[in-house]
Write a structure and sequence with these properties.
By secondary structure, the protein is mainly α. It has two domains: 32 residues, no CATH class; 41 residues. It is 43% helix and 0% strand. It is built from four helices and no strands. Helix 2 packs across helix 4. The longest helix has 13 residues. It is elongated and about 65 Å long. The termini are far apart.
Length: 102
């Protein structure tokens, strides 16, 4: 018994302005895709991407300590085990809109 070879891949298959999920699934049906998987969104509403390493409370603490000048960005990065650019992004978000930071 021989198996039919198949290709596993991800591709955006619709063209033009219609980039909705329904259009993608219709295009896969037309292309006779045999195995299609719909991955449900994560519990926090994300679709893909990495999980956050820091909790919301930790992000607020980092921003407040750096903005107030009590700790440097490098110190907070070492303390929480994240990179300095991550701390910089957290602080920038906080400075733009303190309420936006969860």
């Amino acid at each position: 018994m021989t198996r039919e070879p198949y290709l596993i891949s991800y591709a955006r298959v619709s063209k033009g302005d219609d980039q909705t999920n329904a259009a993608q699934w219709r295009a896969l049906d037309v292309a006779r895709c045999k195995r299609c998987s719909r991955r449900p969104p994560a519990a926090d509403g994300r679709i893909g991407g990495r999980r956050r390493k820091l909790a919301d409370k930790q992000r607020r603490e980092i921003a407040k300590f750096v903005v107030s000048g009590r700790k440097s960005g490098a110190e907070m990065a070492r303390l929480y085990g994240v990179s300095e650019p991550t701390v910089s992004r957290i602080v920038a978000t906080y400075r733009q809109d303190p309420l936006r930071l969860p």
